[in-house]
Write a structure and sequence with these properties.
Largest sheet: 5 strands, antiparallel
Structural class: alpha+beta
Number of domains: 3
Strand content: 15-25%
Mean pLDDT: 90
CATH class of the largest domain: Mainly Alpha
Number of strands: 11
CATH architecture of the largest domain: Orthogonal Bundle
């Protein structure tokens, strides 16, 4: 086989391939054997006619079509391997010359991963931050538990700091008067002073009595986690249904037993400290791994085909849509709230998608270079752990599907590569 590769651009190549006679002869034999299996000819049992007889009696148009398909598949596979290409799409195929079973010249045009220059990851160094749990961390958690387990007594007086107010509320844009998605609730319990709501909201409830209604404006913080609400002025209407005076339990052994299977307060404190440390270590590990891959990605050069970035944009968008469905919001409503078109939304998310693809390609190449692998036993263990988290038989069946098993394998491979890089970076 002869092939000539030409770069169309940084992420697209053209390969001109001429098949050799021996390869075409083998392909013809394989094609005839496939025809032989189902061909019925006088004087021969089904599937037993000689290949030369099969060739003479086969539908020539069908035989040539099958032969060409098989030959093209072989030629393309070999061309990809010989040129060390990483295709990201199906090739466009053009047959330039064809003499039945003796001559075949084909041209393939395909998008590929372009230049991949990974920085020396063995020299990347990122300092690890120490994880500590302070006495204040434990005290704050204990206070949170006291709030959670506080006993409420209904009162008819005006609400004051520390009370639980059960309310109905509704929020609308202060300018347009249009309702704000998610800014409403029924019989919603809120403790004044808990700082669980928008800054400035809870103090507005002080002095209200059961049955009272109040309308007031709140301007959301400029760094609010929902972009469409950042710095937005919202008019809230609140109706108080009930006020509960909360009585917290004293911090003693009886409180510890009330919270969980703890024999005394000291055991509860030790458990809180351990859990806080585990949570902080897990968060710090995720942040650390993110810093390592960001450092590596910034120092590496990867030329990515648009097709790969487009796929990631669509994948991220689909995940976002699923999350919105769970929140009871449509995609159209979300775009209207954000004040952007679908095209603008995709453009905004494109840089993030590009970084995800770039990081993924770098990690994949490192795993290949360092011969990092995932065993069937490791996949089985992860599947069993996931099945333990879901009781739904349908979910169990989904986890066993080949495409999902492959996804689990890729996730494990990424985790192991992250772990490898993290050990190097922390030396």
């Amino acid at each position: 086989m002869q092939n000539k590769l030409t770069k169309v651009n940084d992420t697209k190549v053209k390969i001109e391939v001429t098949a050799d006679a021996d390869s075409l002869a083998r392909t013809l034999q394989e094609t005839l054997k496939d025809f032989q299996k189902s061909m019925k000819l006088p004087g021969f049992r089904e599937g037993k006619a000689p290949l030369n007889i099969v060739e003479k009696n086969a539908d020539q148009a069908r035989l040539q079509s099958s032969f060409i398909d098989s030959a093209i598949n072989h030629l393309y596979s070999h061309a990809v391997i010989e040129n060390d290409l990483k295709p990201v799409s199906q090739p466009q195929v053009s047959i330039k010359k064809f003499v039945p079973f003796t001559l075949l010249e084909v041209e393939f045009e395909v998008e590929v991963i372009g230049e991949l220059k990974i920085a020396d990851y063995k020299k990347i160094r990122v300092a690890k931050k120490p994880v500590t749990v302070t006495a204040k961390d434990v005290t704050d958690t204990l206070e949170s538990l006291r709030d959670r387990f506080a006993e409420g007594t209904e009162v008819k007086r005006a609400a004051k700091d520390g009370d639980q107010v059960v309310m109905d509320f509704y929020g609308a844009d202060a300018k347009t008067k249009e309702p704000i998605a998610g800014a409403e609730g029924k019989a919603y319990p809120l403790v004044i002073g808990s700082n669980a709501f928008i800054p400035g909201f809870e103090p507005k409830l002080i002095g209200l009595k059961p049955g009272d209604e109040k309308t007031f404006d709140i301007t959301f913080p400029k760094d609010y986690n929902a972009a469409y609400l950042q710095s937005k002025k919202v008019t809230f209407n609140v109706k108080v249904n009930q006020i509960n005076e909360l009585k917290k339990s004293p911090l003693d052994d009886a409180f510890a037993a009330k919270v969980g299977p703890f024999k005394d307060l000291a055991e509860l404190k030790a458990d809180i400290k351990k859990q806080l440390k585990d949570e902080k270590e897990q968060r710090e590990l995720q942040l650390y791994q993110s810093e390592v891959i960001t450092e590596l990605t910034n120092k590496s050069k990867v030329t990515i085909p648009d097709a790969l970035i487009d796929e990631q944009v669509e994948r991220s968008e689909e995940e976002e849509k699923q999350n919105l469905i769970r929140q009871g919001q449509t995609w159209k409503e979300h775009l209207e709230i954000e004040g952007i078109t679908e095209a603008e939304h995709r453009k905004r998310n494109r840089p993030t998608a590009e970084n995800i693809v770039k990081s993924s390609l770098i990690l994949s190449q490192i795993a290949q270079d360092e011969k990092i692998t995932v065993t069937p036993e490791e996949i089985d263990l992860r599947v069993q752990l996931l099945k333990g988290q879901y009781q739904d038989p349908q979910m169990h069946a989904e986890l066993s599907k080949p495409e999902n098993l492959n996804g689990i394998r890729n996730q494990l491979l990424t985790e192991k590569t992250f772990e490898y890089l993290s050990k190097l970076a922390s030396k």
